[in-house]
Design a protein that fits this description.
Residues 130-144 have a biased composition (Low complexity). TNFR-Cys repeats lie at residues 53-92. The chain is mainly α and 338 residues long. 42% of the residues lie in helices and 10% in strands. It folds into three domains: 10-129, Tumor Necrosis Factor Receptor, subunit A, domain 2 (Ribbon); 153-192; 200-334, no CATH class. It has helices at residues 110-129, 153-188, 200-219, 233-236, 241-245, 247-257, 267-273, 278-286, 293-304, 310-319, 323-329; strands at residues 10-13, 18-21, 32-34, 51-53, 58-59, 68-69, 79-82, 91-93, 97-100, 103-106. The strands form five sheets. The chain has a two-stranded antiparallel sheet. The longest helix has 36 residues, at 153-188. It is elongated.
Length: 338
């Protein structure tokens, strides 16, 4: 004891006039415990170092004020995988496991295992036989050498490449499935009316032709009095459901009216003529990948107004300046019964 006032593990603090624990002034270090009264007299003078190394059979992993007694054995069925040293208690592992960096891991190949155990034993012996050099000032103790880990760089690189290839393959599979799903839904839309998908260039060329035809029809609007001169009487009086039943005519109307082309009125305007709300029209276009908005409009119109005829549809198309679509309706004359 170096103090007449304080018990072991504490030193006299002249500023507070009381005994305080050593760890309030000095840090706790693995493999060491505090000397008696932290090596300080009641006057605050150092008469020995603040630390002393854990004795044989004891350890401190850096979480204790004093060195703790090592266990002597492991509970069944565990066995001792790492012996006690001044920084670690014995480590208990299962059969065919070894201690590595304080944890139990599966045993490696014999050559690698021998190298690791040799390094571990030599490190343990080096720490156990080392003594801290005396000093009048508080120097930090050197840490125990770490156990070298096996070089697993090659395995990590291989696993990284394998993961990257798996992600690439998964991306292409998902992309192909989405494409196949889209093509299937597109072919089924319009109740089977659209049987072939348009290429991007073909669709752009088609939209340009539509825009040209619409402009041409608009210029002739003043010269015509309505769609009656375009439709045969039998077609005008045919029920509106006739359009849904003629897949060829319906397909042409879908390609002409569904696309959004700047300056050209389309299915959105036709739906407005049929008194569908703005929200309903937006929802129909949001489902365009699954069902044609024009088909949805025609089906809704037939349901709400079963007495509507092809002539009524032609009048609404003429109102929004789409006489090109009225010309397509004229093709119904072949399939209309007199």
């Amino acid at each position: 004891m170096t103090s007449d006032r304080c018990l072991d593990g504490k030193h006299w603090d002249r500023n507070q006039n009381l005994c305080v624990p050593c760890y309030t002034k000095f840090r706790i270090h693995a493999g060491y415990e505090f000397s008696a009264n932290c090596g300080l007299t009641d006057d605050g003078h150092h008469i020995e170092t603040a630390y002393k190394q854990c004795s044989k059979g004891t350890f401190n992993d850096g979480s204790y004020v004093k060195c703790q007694t090592c266990r002597s054995s492991c509970p069944n069925p565990l066995v001792i995988a790492s012996a006690c040293n001044n920084t670690s208690d014995i480590i208990c592992c299962r059969q065919r496991e070894q201690a590595l960096n304080g944890t139990c891991v599966p045993k490696l190949l014999p050559t690698t295992e021998k190298t690791i155990w040799s390094t571990t034993l030599s490190s343990t012996a080096s720490v156990a036989n080392s003594d801290p050099s005396p000093s009048s000032t508080q120097s930090l103790p050197s840490k125990s050498p770490l156990v070298d880990t096996p070089n697993l760089t090659g395995i990590y690189v291989f696993l990284g490449i394998l993961s990257a290839l798996s992600l690439v393959c998964l991306f292409f599979v998902i992309k192909r499935r989405k494409r196949n799903h889209f093509n299937g839904e597109f072919q089924k839309c319009c109740n089977g009316a659209v049987r072939e998908s348009l290429t991007k260039k073909g669709l752009e060329r088609f939209q340009q032709n539509v825009a040209y035809n619409v402009i041409k029809e608009t210029s002739k609007k003043d010269q015509t009095t309505g769609p009656s001169h375009l439709l045969a009487p039998g077609v005008q009086n045919a029920p509106l459901s006739t359009v849904l039943n003629n897949l060829d005519v319906l397909e042409e109307l879908v390609f002409v009216l569904d696309p959004d082309i700047a300056g050209v009125k389309n299915t959105r305007h036709l739906a407005s003529q049929c008194s569908f709300s703005f929200a309903w029209i937006n929802y129909a276009y949001s489902m365009k990948d699954h069902k044609s908005p024009l088909v949805a409009v025609l089906e809704g119109a037939v349901t709400k107004n079963p007495d509507w005829t092809v002539g009524d549809l032609a009048e609404m198309l003429s109102t929004i300046g789409r006489n090109d679509a009225v010309e397509i309706l004229a093709k119904l004359s072949v399939g209309v019964e007199e």
